[in-house]
Amino acid sequence: MTVTADEDVLAEPRPCARCSQPSLLWVAGRCADCIAQLGLQDDSAEYRSWKDDVRTEFGRK
Ligand SMILES: [Zn+2]
Q1: Residue 60 scores a pLDDT above 80
Q2: How far is the CA of 52 from the CAs of 4, 15, 22, 55, 59, in angstroms?
Q3: For residue range 16-52, what is the model confidence (pLDDT) as tens digits?
Q4: Rounded to the nearest whole angstrom, what is the distance from the C-alpha of residue 59 to the centroid of ligand 1?
Q5: Residue 26 C-alpha to ligand 1 middle, in angstroms?
């Protein structure tokens, strides 16, 4: 797996709020793997919940 650092994502190891795995690439507390899984789930409730967290974290403009 190749991890690329996005300028908008803090590249800092932190445990994922969902799977508890330390990850260098996470957004709004979820690691990249979990975010990918959220988008693939049939039930989009958790994905929408994450999107709300993203909006809370990055939506202050
Ligand atoms: Zn995770």
Answers
A1: no
A2: 24, 20, 22, 5, 9
A3: 999 999 998 889 999 999 999 999 999 999 999 999 9
A4: 22
A5: 8
